[in-house]
Structures are given as C-alpha cells and as structure tokens.
Design brief:
7 strands, alpha+beta
Length: 151
C-alpha cells in the first residue's frame, strides 16, 4: 500500500465517497454536499498548511482518503478517514490509518504529539480500526467517542 498527498485528480473520487449513504450516515454532517461546495473545500484543503489530505492506494486502486487537521501549536492533530465504498469489508482501514500516520509524522518532523479521532458511538468498525492502531478512548461527548494516540 502506498500513501501520497492528494491532488486535483482526486477531487471527483473524494466527492463521490463523501456523498455515499453509509459515509454520510457515519459523518457528523450527514447532508449531501454539492460539487460546488466540495470543490471549494477541496481547493482550500490543498492549500491549507495545517491540513494534510492523503490518499492510500494499492495496485493503482484508490483505497481511502485520510485527513489530518493540525489543531494548535501544542501539537494536536485530528484524523479523519473515508474509505472508498468499493473497498469496504476488506479489513484495510487499520493499515491505511497506520501508514498514513507514519507518512504524516515524517512530514511534520515530530511537530504533532497527539492525534485525536472523533467517532460516532455506533461506528463500531471505525472504532475497532483506530483501537487496532493504538488509539485509546479518552472521553465521550454525547454520541461521540474521542480517541487519542500519543506519538
């Protein structure tokens, strides 16, 4: 599996994955996103120095997009993963997460010390994937569980 930074050729794939019904169900914002809104978000994301959009690929197949948002100067980043719907059920998420964290950590030269994942309580598969990667439950806020990984 290869991890690379997203580029403009990924815009349509990420847009389609974002509007997938299961993705929307597990997202904090379950609304359908218009392409115009996505286009603006995507362009801003590529130029935001505190955001990393990474693409996981295997044998030319796009597996997932992983987003890291650096939240503060104290060394915290939030991680978010969205799997290509065609790749679900193949047990690839934990590998994608681990390899993306390694890539991200190298790019940040140890600037980030804590990676945070916020997951809906009902998203059992995502919770298992993050726990498998070493994330520990830190707190619960309503229907959201917050997991931390200390680097």
């Amino acid at each position: 599996m290869k991890i690379r930074e997203a580029n403009f050729s990924d815009i349509s794939d990420i847009y389609e994955w974002r509007n997938d019904p299961i993705t929307r169900q597990m997202s904090f914002n379950s609304d359908i996103v218009t392409f115009a809104t996505h286009n603006k978000w995507f362009k801003n994301s590529l130029y935001n120095k505190n955001r990393y959009l990474l693409i996981a690929e295997e044998e030319e197949r796009k597996i997932s997009v992983v987003r890291f948002d650096i939240k503060d100067e104290k060394g915290t980043a939030e991680i978010n993963i969205n799997l290509n719907p065609l790749e679900r059920g193949k047990r690839l998420s934990s590998t994608v997460i681990s390899k993306s964290i390694l890539y991200f950590n190298i790019k940040n030269n140890e600037r980030v010390k804590i990676i945070v994942s916020k997951i809906k309580k009902e998203n059992i598969v995502s919770k298992r994937s993050f726990i498998k990667c070493g994330f520990k439950l830190n707190s619960v806020e309503k229907n959201i569980e917050i997991y931390n990984l200390y680097l």
